[in-house]
Design goal:
Helix content is 41%, strand content 18%. It contains 26 helices and 28 strands.
Length: 942
């Protein structure tokens, strides 16, 4: 029986070395396609010729997936128009066997075509057996009968399984076509710019059901045969179908029917995804002023899937990003579901309604989807404050990853499947989203909103390039009567067509109150130079005018190296540029202004916006380790955190402290770092405690875990005692740890756990079907530091007879080697003994052995670790399980770590020694005095 949730319209008003990353509770999972082609040849053109174009596909598929049979058959008929005179048709195909191909003109008899397959370029070339070409403007029907095999790597048309409530394994078939995998299910023009309509028919067992982009066409559908209504004009990569025994919940909001599908037995976990989907769809339709354009919108939770996919009218998700259990799931899961739904439903407009002309412009859909995953979620759940997460997970991540010596631009031409796949990175997602976020604020939301409406409306059901967006925003600025200092296309192209981003250097004139802003390209390596210039929007706040609300640009650097701003600032005021950190750049100040900022944070931190508080630390860290700023500025700034309770600043601080811990732990005076950290975190730990409070702010639950993690790192005894106490209480069935604290407490308790305690969590991993819980158990088990326990954990990855799911096996090593030196040593030892078995875990074209060794190299900080890892590299480097540049990359990353140690460890430890001997004592005394005064006040009040 399908459960049903009816929702009325009224609900719409409700509710690497030297790098430092924020404490992200989850990162949006980019599901790269599985690329199966060989090494590209530079002399070949991998783009389809443009002499014919499709207008309609009629696809008939037959599958017996319910029996676990991977073979399927297909017939595709494509209506094509000849654009240039030709006697051949070139389509894309992958891993298919072809029985017959014909072409038909009007009512004439079908003509059989010669079939040639170019495996290198994945071209299916269908040629007339006579010499006569088809004339320009001919309307023809291509027909190809073929067969294929459902893949096992979650790409193309694939089969996966789940374990049902009775413990039996159940198969299902699903699709993941982006970006070049539709060609695995049917021969096609697999190009995002070649849109067409699709009529899909699927023959399957009567015990299974089929769903696709459009509603079922009831007139032609019979038992075991599902026919779907013809789609709107769309590209191949967002075609989708699922053949399964899934159950669904459904709802309706403002006339749009939505359903959530998942495996039987999980219906009770569909409600949050359904509610979020309905609210977010409505919010996006309102923002774009364009109603959702299909008659229905389904979302499906797919077992063993990583990430999500925006198929038009049928978005698909890994189970952990759709299923929410009220009693067991965490606020992390709840937030992730809403956020990722925002991303995929955002794509229904950006990517589906308007497609990109070619993968060169991948950012033009992914950047918008990433931005609107937050914008739509914030509109639907404004009480959360999700922009703090955008700051840490997108903005800071992009600033960190986009600072190499040769960063690629957002707009970047590619041809091959492998090149296309390489674009699915932080540039296309996090950076593009951050750049769009910057211009959203700089131009004002009114201009941005109208510009997006213009863009979507002008290009609906077609394909676009970046100039279409720029023109739409230009028109919007005129329509809103908003003055702009230069052409939109010039300003935005400076961000889309050159890689990297600027650092602004601010120099104040303390006599006349003005300041100068100079720009140059920022790179992690301070010796890397570039003559790049950007059009940069700026604004600022000061101590006497600490209003961070208006984020529109007040000034611009218009492709010039510097400007002077006559601000009339008081010489004693701090100055902070980039209100709410919406501008995608770093800012370095003169020494005096940094001093004023640090003093201001210690005195009245609340006067500075929390997003700016986070970014000040993030910038100061990066500047201090690249010889642009004294370490003392950052180290003197961080103790302000004693008064901090917001997520973004604490998540940023966690990234910094984790990096310090990793590089300093072997120092003979590591305890100085612990005392410094304890001075900062212990008072905050006492405030947050280890128990959740009912009604507390959404991100407080995230922040508490950070505080507990840092208190343990700082050797705060009360924290360690309370963690052990709560863990043992659960172990003894006294009281369970709250879901939001479970992963953190398991992690800390397992650092020195008994075999019984370790097995308790290990058994939980093996015996739950909840994917989000499984991921958290893997993360916690990676915290173990006992060699025997770690070996058991690692060995489970290659034991194909246990209950681990294929994608999970590839996350086990990193859960440990990224956590501790014990985990790193154990991971190297495990691969030394089992590298071939681990290499065999490959799914599709990935190389898990190669990825694991590269990952481990980022955590090598001393010579014996280097020796052991390089011995492993030497053992495997000639095998097919690793790439040819493995040794070079590993050595480079290790050297980067050594460079960090050489440049930063001694000055940091010297400062902390001085803090221990002088600073902490005086500061502690002042806090003791303050605490005493508060006790007196409280006593008098009561």
């Amino acid at each position: 029986m399908n459960s049903r949730l009816v929702v009325f319209s009224a609900i719409a008003i409700l509710a690497v070395a030297g790098s430092v990353k924020s404490a992200s509770h989850y990162k949006f999972p980019v599901e790269r396609e599985s690329v199966l082609t060989g090494t590209p040849r530079e002399d070949l053109n991998y783009r389809l010729p443009n002499n014919t174009i499709p207008s309609h596909y009629d696809i008939v598929l037959t599958t017996r997936v319910d029996e676990g049979i991977r073979e399927f058959t297909g017939v595709v008929t494509i209506d094509v128009t000849v654009v240039e005179e030709t006697n051949s048709f070139v389509l894309n195909a992958r891993q298919l066997k072809f029985d017959k191909a014909t072409v038909q003109s009007g009512s004439e008899s079908p003509e059989e075509l010669k079939i040639v397959y170019d495996e290198q370029r994945e071209f299916l070339i269908l040629t007339r057996k006579v010499e006569a070409p088809f004339a320009k403007d001919s309307k023809l029907k291509l027909n190809v009968t073929y067969n294929g095999v459902l893949r096992n790597d979650n790409a193309g048309f694939y089969m996966t399984t789940y374990t049902d409530v009775n413990g039996s394994e159940r198969p299902l078939a699903a699709t993941q076509f982006e970006s070049t995998n539709a060609r695995h299910a049917f021969p096609c023009y697999d190009d995002p710019g070649k849109r067409a309509t699709f009529k899909i028919t699927i023959n399957h067992s009567p015990t299974y059901t089929a769903i696709s982009n459009m509603p079922v066409y009831e007139t032609e559908t019979t038992s075991g045969k599902t026919v779907f209504e013809t789609t709107v004009n769309m590209p191949t990569y967002i075609v989708a179908f699922i053949v399964s025994d899934f159950k669904y919940s459904e709802g309706e909001l403002n006339g749009l029917k939505q359903r959530v599908y998942s495996r039987p037995g999980s219906e009770d976990e569909q409600e949050w995804g359904l509610l979020s989907g309905m609210l977010i769809t409505q919010r996006l339709a309102e923002y774009f002023d364009i109603d959702f354009m299909l008659p229905k919108l389904d979302q499906a939770a797919i077992p063993n899937k990583g990430g999500a996919m925006e198929n038009y009218g049928l978005a698909t998700y890994g189970e952990q990003y759709m299923l929410y259990n009220r009693d067991l799931s965490t606020v992390n899961t709840q937030t992730a579901i809403a956020n990722i739904i925002g991303h995929e439903i955002g794509h229904q407009w950006f990517g589906d309604y308007v497609t990109i002309q070619w993968w060169t412009y991948l950012w033009l859909k992914e950047g918008f989807a990433q931005l609107f995953s937050y914008k739509a979620t914030d509109d639907a759940f404004p009480e959360w404050g999700i922009w703090q997460q955008f700051q840490t997970d997108e903005y800071q991540a992009a600033l960190t990853s986009d600072a190499s010596d040769k960063p690629r631009p957002m707009t970047h031409y590619v041809q091959t499947a492998a090149e296309i796949s390489s674009l699915y990175d932080d540039v296309s997602y996090a950076k593009a989203g951050s750049v769009l976020h910057m211009w959203n604020h700089a131009l004002t939301d009114a201009v941005f909103k109208r510009g997006l409406h213009n863009y979507l409306d002008a290009n609906k059901f077609t394909s676009a390039v970046e100039d279409d967006l720029f023109n739409a925003l230009q028109i919007a600025a005129k329509e809103e009567n908003h003055p702009i200092p230069a052409r939109i296309e010039d300003m935005l192209r400076s961000w889309t067509q050159q890689g990297g981003y600027p650092v602004l250097t601010v120099s104040r004139n303390y006599d006349d109150g003005s300041f100068t802003v100079a720009q140059q390209s920022f790179h992690n390596n301070e010796n890397t130079k570039s003559d790049k210039l950007w059009y940069i929007p700026i604004n600022y706040a000061s101590q006497s005018n600490a209003d961070f609300r208006n984020t529109a640009a007040s000034d611009f650097l218009l492709n010039v190296s510097s400007i002077k701003v006559d601000a009339k600032l008081s010489k004693d005021d701090w100055l902070i540029l980039n209100k709410q950190s919406t501008g995608f750049y770093r800012i370095n100040y003169d020494d005096k202004n940094w001093k004023l900022i640090v003093e201001g944070l210690h005195d009245k931190p609340y006067k500075v916006h929390p997003l700016n508080r986070a970014q000040l630390m993030h910038d100061a860290y990066r500047f201090s380790i690249s010889n642009r700023l004294q370490h003392s500025t950052l180290l003197e700034m961080l103790p302000y955190l004693v008064e901090e309770d917001q997520y973004a600043p604490w998540a940023t601080a966690k990234g910094i402290f984790d990096t310090f811990h990793r590089f300093l732990i072997d120092h003979s005076n590591y305890e100085y770092f612990q005392r410094y950290l304890a001075y900062i975190v212990e008072p905050v730990y006492e405030k947050f405690g280890v128990h959740e409070d009912s009604g507390e702010q959404h991100y407080h639950k995230f922040t508490r875990n950070i505080i507990i993690h840092l208190a343990w790192m700082a050797d705060v005894k009360t924290c360690q005692q309370e963690v052990r106490k709560k863990f043992e209480a659960e172990l003894n069935n006294v009281v369970a740890i709250e879901p939001n604290l479970r992963s953190q407490f398991y992690c800390l308790a397992l650092k020195d756990a008994t075999s019984t305690e370790f097995n308790y969590v290990f058994d939980k991993l093996m015996n739950t079907n909840d994917q989000a819980l499984r991921n958290s158990f893997i993360s916690s088990l990676g915290c173990a530091e006992n060699a025997e326990q770690l070996n058991k954990f690692f060995s489970s990855s290659i034991d194909t007879g246990n209950k681990l799911r294929s994608p999970e096996r590839l996350t086990i090593l990193s859960a440990a080697y990224s956590r501790s030196q014990a985990g790193l040593y154990a991971a190297i030892e495990f691969l030394n003994n089992n590298w071939q078995a681990y290499g065999e875990l490959a799914i599709g074209s990935n190389k898990p052995l190669d990825a694991a060794i590269r990952g481990m190299s980022s955590y090598v900080v001393k010579s014996d670790q280097e020796l052991k890892l390089l011995e492993l590299v030497d053992k495997v480097k000639e095998s097919a399980y690793v790439n040819s540049d493995l040794e070079t990359v590993v050595k480079s990353r290790i050297q980067d770590n050594y460079n960090w140690l050489k440049a930063n460890r001694d000055p940091i430890m010297s400062w902390m020694l001085n803090f221990r001997n002088s600073g902490s004592a005086s500061l502690t005394l002042s806090f003791v005095s303050l605490a005493s005064a508060l006790v007196i006040v409280v006593f008098r009040l009561f």
